[in-house]
Design goal:
Immunoglobulin-like, 5-stranded mixed beta sheet, binds arginine, binds zinc ion
Length: 870
């Protein structure tokens, strides 16, 4: 762990490094009690004049030997985690031999042990735990890596690039040497040593080169790699067709690791994945998981261009690669499956996680201006809002020019470390548009709000829309300038038909996009004989909050007939949301008829796909409700949501039952959009049916669980039972599940999270679960299953005792010493304490204070806790 006082790093302070590293030669000798790393760095002065000191980042290493051009380095010092020495030449080879201890590395950054294998995670700043280096993304070198280890224990030795040599060594040891000819920053370095099995395939690129594809896993996971391999081939093909991007090395490898801080990592030619994000089988992976794995495999593969060939100049540019790559993987999933459904899910995700982030103490721009610990900025804002910003550029320039801009970007900056400005400049150049104002999306935090008013004039047959945009202050930014906001729109007549638009605004008739750039804009629409119903922000054309007070009849028309399925979804969700919040505040004492009208329209709509129908019938989640409330009374919110759920369950019990039964299928499992949609809708109707309270429904759920030949049906059955009050049945099924699946890591992770998120859970039950043989505080997936599941279980986390807050704080304090990056993530559930009722807010605040009072606080936890308390 780092012990230095944390310093704030600022974008405005960026300067180029004093030296470049042009080639990096590594020998990594793995031994049981330590690993020896020998590096040879070819270094060159950047610029001329007097030679400045060379500063190399390095932590947790023991220096054995150092030389410059074979002469021992005697004169150096070490401060602020940097080794500082004075070169006497402008070009030289720096060599260092150091010892590190991967077995004791619980931070899972740098080189560490995951189960039986060694692996690495270097983004953002893990390479400095492996060897002394200028560990910053603008320093790009070619790499040669030789790994040596015991042959019996570690028969597989991998690194970036192409394999060039392998052989035997004395004492039962062996080695392998890899060479990566593409320059890259150190954060893309990777190496793996293990007893791994692999599945092979090949891909022929569009220019006819044959690439070997290999997926490696520990033996117990061998049967779960096929789906990822198929996903990889689909990704490679799609990136050639949609973005003109071809793969460049002779080999592409993926390794599955059971201990991993995040989802996966795009190391050049050697992607390392969290096992949960790559290993799939129908018995152990739900449909959601299959879709997520396909998307993550694609995401990491797409980084080979958007991230690796063209990388980030500094970490403030993180969204350059992440926003763009999330956008790219989103397009991929939309093309593979169902575009509308993908959009609905993405927007739902954004509103559930990113809007609250923008609305809380950790709000930051897509391009942050400063940080203490960069690991804290791998956020939904940088990733998902960043992808929305790229999506808006696409909307503004159109598909064809967007592709041209992307081609220009890759061509112009290949092999370079660049900025978000460079990316936007390419889009400006190909389209001739000026994006100066647009770039506020990168620099201003917070979700803009658009307040809309309408007026119809029957005399002149005109209709007016007035848009007023505003954005609440966020930490460090009290005033916001107007954003450029693309509004994809239609005007509908009373039957839901789209009318032709003739207006005086900045409206593009080809794309049906109206662009707003002023604080206030009034647009007049001509030639309308009756008042239209405006369908605005179609497909969520901008990440904004919309306030539009309009007649209920208009909202009902959109919720039942808008031809844009996304907007229909959005209108229905608005009705559910208003209903729940009004029940909670006491403004309503019963569910209004409008809800029945939209639910019936959705239930009876024969045109809708099962998947879309399910999205229309699902109630808003707690994070969404919380984000839309000014003050939060947790238990009233629970009661209100439950009241609506109950109402729908009872009112439509016959439909839920018949839907559940008619959607059953005995066909063999198939993962595709249609089948996943069927299972999704069946799972949802089963939940409503069980909620209505009959034993028949509960028996059906248990039978579905017991007879399941795939994980989706199994979870549908089990979750429905876990939501009931049949304690005996719940217990029996959980015991049965564990007995059957205790040797399967992914299934055990699910088992843990079901108990903390799918049913009511108390702090004492959590403590017991953490004593269970299946739990391991050093394993991030297990921690996320238990603590993450609990923190997302609104009813239990915010129960009347408030014990959950203190419990979470204690876990963060313990984790701080084990894995700071993971620990810091669990501060978020407490950060909105100011918006809860005063008594509850105090309890949450005191939990945060407890965290801040922990000794030896990591910069990760310190930064998050300080912000949350500010
Ligand atoms: N670049 C990886 C991805 O999004 C994520 C790496 C995150 N690592 C970290 N230390 N925060 O594909
Ligand atoms: Zn990424």
């Amino acid at each position: 762990m780092r012990t230095e006082t944390p310093v704030t790093i600022r974008l405005k302070d960026y300067t180029q490094p004093d030296y470049w590293i042009t080639h990096t030669d590594l020998v990594i000798r793995i031994h049981d009690d330590h690993t020896e790393v020998e590096s040879r760095l070819s270094i060159e002065r950047n610029g001329d004049g007097e030679l400045p000191p060379l500063k190399l980042d390095g932590v947790d290493q023991t220096i054995i030997e150092m030389t410059i051009d074979d002469v021992a380095v005697e004169d150096y010092h070490y401060e602020h985690e940097q080794l500082i020495l004075q070169p006497s030449k402008a070009q030289f080879v720096f060599r260092a031999v150091t010892h590190i201890h991967p077995n004791e590395n619980t931070s899972l950054e740098g080189l560490y042990k995951s189960g039986t294998m060694y692996c690495t995670q270097c983004e953002a700043e893990g390479f400095r735990k492996i060897t002394f280096y200028q560990d910053r993304p603008d320093v790009m070198a070619t790499f040669t890596t030789r790994i040596e280890a015991d042959k019996a224990a570690y028969p597989v030795l991998l690194a970036n690039g192409n394999p060039i040599e392998e052989g035997e060594l004395e004492g039962g040891r062996h080695f392998a040497t890899w060479h990566d000819p593409f320059v890259k920053p150190a954060y893309l370095f990777a190496t793996v040593a293990g007893d791994l099995v692999r599945q092979d395939d090949t891909f022929v690129t569009r220019s006819g080169r044959e690439v070997s594809l290999r997926i490696f896993a520990e033996k117990h996971n061998a049967h779960k790699t096929t789906f990822a391999l198929e996903s990889l081939k689909r990704s490679m093909k799609w990136d050639e067709e949609r973005f003109g991007r071809e793969y460049d090395l002779d080999i592409f490898m993926i390794v599955a690791s059971d201990f991993f801080n995040m989802g996966a990592m795009e190391n050049k030619g050697l992607n390392i994945f969290n096992s949960a994000a790559v290993l799939a089988s129908e018995e152990t992976s739900s449909d959601d998981r299959f879709e997520r794995i396909e998307a993550i495999v694609a995401h990491e593969y797409f980084h080979n261009w958007s991230g690796n060939r063209v990388t980030c100049r500094d970490w403030f540019q993180l969204s350059l690669k992440e926003g763009f790559t999330v956008f790219r993987d989103g397009e991929f999933t939309a093309d593979m499956h169902d575009r509308t459904l993908k959009r609905i899910k993405d927007v739902d995700f954004l509103k559930n996680y990113q809007f609250p982030e923008d609305n809380g103490p950790n709000a930051h721009p897509v391009q942050p201006q400063e940080y203490i610990e960069i690991n804290n900025f791998y956020t939904v804002t940088v990733y998902e809002k960043g992808a929305e910003v790229v999506g808006m550029l696409n909307t503004l320039v159109g598909d064809e020019l967007f592709r041209q801009g992307s081609d220009l970007y890759f061509e112009r900056f290949d092999g370079m470390a660049v900025t978000t400005d460079d990316f936007v400049a390419c889009m400006a150049e190909v389209s001739g548009q000026d994006f100066t104002q647009f770039k506020r999306w990168y620099t201003q935090a917070g979700t803009p709000q658009v307040d809309i008013e309408q007026a119809f004039d029957a005399q002149t047959n005109t209709y007016q829309l007035t848009f007023k945009q505003s954005c609440k202050p966020t930490p460090g930014q009290s005033e916001k300038q107007p954003f450029v906001i693309p509004v994809r729109m239609a005007l509908l007549d009373q039957s839901g038909q789209e009318l032709t638009i003739d207006c005086d605004g900045d409206f593009n008739a080809d794309t049906q996009v109206l662009t707003l750039s002023q604080a206030e804009t009034t647009v007049t629409f001509r030639g309308l004989s009756e008042a239209p119903v405006a369908s605005l922000f179609r497909d969520f054309s901008a990440p904004v909050r919309v306030r539009f007070d309009r007649p209920e009849a208009d909202v009902l028309l959109l919720a039942t007939r808008d031809p844009n399925a996304f907007n229909r979804f959005d209108a229905i969700q608005q009705i559910y949301m208003d209903t729940i919040l009004s029940l909670a505040s006491g403004a309503f004492d019963r569910v209004p008829d409008a809800v029945n009208a939209v639910v019936e329209a959705a239930l009876n709509d024969a045109e809708l796909s099962h998947a879309i129908k399910a999205t229309l019938l699902r109630l808003p989640t707690y994070p969404l409700l919380v984000d839309n409330s000014d003050t939060i009374d947790a238990q009233r919110l629970v009661a209100a949501r439950d009241q609506l759920l109950n109402h729908l369950a009872v009112q439509y019990v016959d439909q839920w039952q018949s839907m559940t039964q008619s959607l059953a299928s005995a066909d063999p499992y198939r993962f595709d959009a249609a089948e996943a949609g069927r299972r999704e809708l069946q799972g949802l109707s089963l939940q409503y049916w069980v909620k209505a309270g009959s034993d028949e429904a509960l028996n059906y759920a248990e039978a579905l669980y017991r007879a399941a030949n795939n994980q989706t049906d199994r979870l549908n059955g089990l979750s429905a039972v876990l939501k009931s009050d049949d304690a005996g049945r719940k217990e029996a099924l959980l015991v049965h599940y564990y007995r059957q699946w205790k040797d399967d890591t992914q299934m055990v992770e699910n088992w843990l999270s079901l108990q903390t998120s799918a049913t009511d859970v108390s702090v004492s039950q959590l403590k017991d679960l953490m004593q269970h043989e299946a739990f391991d505080l050093k394993n991030p997936n297990k921690v996320r299953s238990v603590l993450g599941g609990f923190a997302g279980n609104f009813k239990s986390f915010h129960d009347d005792t408030g014990e959950g807050y203190q419990f979470l704080a204690e876990q963060v304090a313990t984790l701080n010493a084990i894995n700071p990056q993971v620990a810091a993530r669990f501060i978020k559930p407490l950060e909105n304490w100011k918006r809860f009722s005063p008594e509850r807010g105090e309890m949450m605040k005191s939990a945060l204070s407890h965290i801040l009072a922990t000794e030896d606080l990591s910069p990760d936890v310190l930064e998050m806790a300080q912000k949350a308390l500010a």
